[in-house]
Design goal:
- By secondary structure, the protein is of the alpha+beta class.
- The chain is built from 21 helices and 32 strands.
- The protein has an 8-stranded mixed beta sheet with strand order 15-19-20-27-24-23-21-22. Strands 2-1-5-3-4 form a 5-stranded mixed beta sheet, sandwiched between helices.
- A hairpin with a 5-residue loop joins strand 1 and strand 2.
- Helix 4 packs across helix 5, helix 6 runs antiparallel to helix 7 and helix 14 packs across helix 15.
- The chain is globular.
- The structure holds zinc ion (2 copies).
- One zinc ion binds next to loops.
């Protein structure tokens, strides 16, 4: 290694416990771990460092990115970064030694696994040319070029050879080399992709960073785990085609995917999770439970809600409308098509046209399908003069909107071309912003809790004062962002601030829910806007008798009813809680002589407001029970001689099994309470 051996003053290393050590410049994180304890040195994977001299903080810049830029260029300007354990330190830093449990360490291990895969690949198929091999959220890939496609057997051989590379426990060693020399080496090997990356991400005269393990060297800025032996559990998972630089006129590359973990247990858990995700796929369950369909003859991305899915939707919408009204919203309805002129005023025609369907020509003018509900609500606001006493005005609509998505990008209920937003627009004075935002956040929390989500993440997107795309005065932005942060702080909701990510017309809060498998879903959003009120000349008469412009807040909580339903199906694996289940109780008379009793039980359950299906077919009892089970019906009641003689029912509970006989009235009380309480349990 040719680190410049700076004979300089000692540097200060601050450890997470606050203690500060003075060490010679050039000391590595490994040295420091080792001086604490050799056991610690063996357990750490990488280190996170932050300069002790303050630098401009850009929270948006994550320490480790999968981008090519992050892989090849010099250290990012970020205040914080991950380094390998053998990286000599030359400045005062706060140092954190990361063990295997740290997500950043896993990402480094996965990227290191990509090097291991490339090592194996070149040992077996030396003619292969390498592209790049980043870590991803679930593993890693390497883009490679080889004329002959890799077969399944090749992938198995690569995986087996990777095990050998891991067993050899080769240290990852950084080599700094003059750029010209590296380019000359790669040119002699016709490594067109490496040459491209070096030329793109480094400058003439640079020393470039290479990493070597055993006989394999790769152009990479690092960091990596200390040695190949640290990647204990991995799998080559799949292969896909990709064009070099995404251009179909270029060479066809092969992208080989894999995943890696620090131990076999985590690897197994990962594949179990993938199976679980597959078993919960809303497209599969939607068919099995007869909830919805997408019909080729009608077009892609357009959803047909079948009776059972329709019933769940009605329940969701009823709850939402009742809640809106209880919280001081007024329900409105606006047309699906409106004149093109309106979309010109709103700016959609100019800024959103690529997501809109083409205009339709009618007698008097051109019309367009609505991609958003906002202009409709604005017209209602504008229809009569408003005074400060009328504000806030909160208009809510379950509005159907149509947006163009490229064919091939649609995905079940999650990505569609027509959907229903639980949309609302609040028109208020600047002084009312804070209380309105607080009410929106309360409402969003209530939605998540009611539909069975315990955890969520909040992101606050703000402006970048230097970026000219953001409209509105500094005052406006500071006032709005201040209100948003005060609300989140007061409610003790942790959040991440993302500067520069706001829409050009105002800051926003996004709420991402966490489902039962730990996956994140972006659904609710609360968004400020001072653009549309200006475009439409909205006004209210203030206390001073003069006209003022109201602030507008767009907010959606389900987001899209279709998408939220898709998430619910996967979250519950189709086993909906009692209040949402399309059929709440299934009746199984043991034989035909119990049919009359079954009919009377059905009547009494229905009179109690429960959704009931009786199986009066001549199937065997067990077949009827199985069918209701496949439909994930919460309760199955079995009705035989004993039950009809004693006005009772024998209860089977979903996922719990047989609970024996209880009086019918007792069961009705229990079932009704579960519905009223929106209980997640049975
Ligand atoms: Zn690397
Ligand atoms: Zn809107």
């Amino acid at each position: 290694m040719h680190y410049p051996c700076k004979v300089s003053n000692p540097i200060k290393i601050q450890l997470p416990d606050g203690s500060v050590r003075e060490v010679p410049a050039g000391t590595t994180p490994f040295d420091i771990a080792n001086s604490i304890s050799p056991r610690l040195a063996a357990a750490v994977v990488v280190a996170r460092i932050r300069p002790l001299t303050p630098v401009a903080v850009n929270e948006n810049e994550s320490a480790l990115e999968a981008s090519e830029e992050a892989m090849y260029s010099g250290p990012a300007s970020s205040s914080e970064r991950i380094v390998g354990l053998s990286q000599p330190l030359h400045e005062n830093v706060a140092l954190e030694l990361l063990k295997e449990s740290d997500p950043a360490a896993l990402r480094v291990a996965r990227h290191s696994a990509a090097h291991i895969m490339a090592t194996a690949l070149l040992e077996l198929f030396p003619e292969t040319k390498l592209g790049h091999g980043p870590a991803t959220d679930s593993g890693f890939f390497y883009d490679v070029y080889r004329e002959v496609p890799f077969t399944e057997a090749d992938l198995a051989a690569i995986e087996a050879r990777m095990a050998e590379v891991v067993a050899r426990d080769e240290p990852f060693v950084q080599i700094l080399e003059p750029r010209d020399q590296a380019l000359a080496d790669y040119k002699s090997d016709a490594e067109f992709m490496k040459i491209h990356f070096i030329e793109r991400f480094t400058k003439p005269g640079d020393e470039i960073s290479l990493y070597r393990n055993g006989n394999f060297t790769d152009f990479c800025r690092g960091p990596h785990v200390p040695s190949t032996g640290r990647v204990k559990a991995f799998k080559v998972t799949s292969i896909a085609g990709a064009y070099w630089l995404g251009d179909e006129n270029n060479q066809q590359l092969q992208r080989i995917y894999g995943t890696a973990f620090f131990n076999a247990k985590d690897l197994d858990a990962h594949f179990k999770q993938l199976e679980e995700i597959k078993a919960r796929d809303h497209r599969v369950l939607g068919k099995q439970l007869d909830l919805f369909s997408i019909q080729e003859v009608a077009g892609a991305g357009l959803i047909f809600w079948h009776p059972k899915g329709g019933l769940i939707r009605k329940t969701m919408e009823d709850w939402m409308r009742d809640e809106c009204i209880r919280r001081g919203y007024q329900m409105v309805f606006t047309p699906h098509i409106m004149r093109r002129e309106l979309w010109k005023i709103s700016g959609h025609e100019e800024n959103y046209a690529e997501n809109m369907y083409p205009p339709m020509e009618l007698d008097d003018a051109e019309y367009r399908l609505k991609p958003m509900n906002c202009p409709g609500h604005i017209l209602i606001y504008k229809n009569s003069p408003k005074s400060y006493r009328d504000l806030p005005q909160r208009y809510a609509e379950l509005g159907n909107v149509y947006r163009y998505e490229r064919s091939g990008t649609m995905h079940g209920l999650l990505r569609v071309r027509g959907f229903t937003q639980d949309d609302a627009h609040i028109f208020c004075t600047p002084e009312q912003i804070e209380s309105e935002v607080e009410a929106c956040i309360d409402f969003a929390e209530s939605v998540l809790k009611t539909f069975g989500f315990e955890k969520f993440l909040v992101e606050l997107s703000t402006w970048d004062p230097k970026d000219k795309k953001f409209i509105g005065s500094t005052d406006k932005w500071e006032n709005a962002v201040g209100s948003l942060t005060r609300v989140l702080d007061r409610k003790k909701i942790p959040y991440r601030t993302i500067p520069g990510e706001a829409a050009f017309y105002g800051p926003k809060i996004d709420i991402k829910l966490v489902d039962v498998l730990g996956r994140l879903w972006q659904l609710s959003t609360v968004q400020f806007d001072w653009n549309l009120p200006a475009r439409f000349d909205l006004e209210y008469v203030g206390e001073d008798g003069a006209p003022h412009q109201p602030v507008m807040v767009h907010r959606a909580l389900f987001g899209s009813v279709e998408r939220f339903f898709g998430v619910l199906i996967e979250h519950y694996a189709g086993a909906f809680p009692m209040w949402l289940a399309p059929v709440q109780v299934g009746l199984v008379p043991i034989s035909e002589k119990h049919h009359d009793y079954a009919k009377s039980v059905q009547q009494r359950l229905e009179a109690a407001g429960l959704r009931v299906e009786a199986d009066l077919s001549n199937q065997k009892m067990n077949a009827k029970i199985r069918d209701f089970g496949l439909q994930k019906v919460p309760f199955i009641l079995i009705l035989g001689d004993k039950e009809s003689a004693s006005d009772s029912v024998s209860v089977r509970v979903r996922a719990k099994g047989d609970e024996g006989s209880v009086p019918l009235d007792t069961f009705i009380d229990r079932a009704k309470k579960l519905v009223v309480d929106h209980s997640m349990e049975l």
